[in-house]
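Many introductory courses stop at the sequence. We go one step further.
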Amino acid sequence: MDLFKKANLIIYRFREKGLEVFLVNSSEEGENWGIPQGEFNGQRSESLRNEDRLIELDPVKPESGDTEEAWAVEGDWHEIPSLKGMLYEDARQVKDELEKMEKGTFFVLKEAVKKVLPHQYQFLKELKDILVDRNSIRDL
C-alpha cells in the first residue's frame, strides 16, 4: 500500500448557465483537461478539517488500480489563491500541480464531463447529485 494517495480537488460555482467546475490544462496543446489533483499522505491538515464547505466524495478506483479520493468546495477566481494555500499545506510535494491552476478555467458541467478522465467523471456525477439533493431540501 502506498504512503501517498491521489487526491482531487473539485472547485465549483453556480452561474447563469448552471453548475461550473474548475479544470486545469496539463498540456501545451490545450486539450488535456482534468480536475486539479496531487498526492497526499491521507492525513488532512487542520485547515482542511475545519473547512465546513468541503464535500468529501466517495473514493474511485481507476484502471490503474490506485484509489483516488476527491473533495469539492464552492469557490471562485478570487478564492483560488486561498484554496491553493490550503492544499499546499496538505500536499507540499504537489507544488508543480498547484501552479497548473494558473492555466485553469471554469467549464459548465455538461462540457466538463466530456473533458475529464472516466474516473473523474464519477466524481462530477456524485457532486452533481449531492448538490441537487441539497438544493431540493432547501426548497422544501
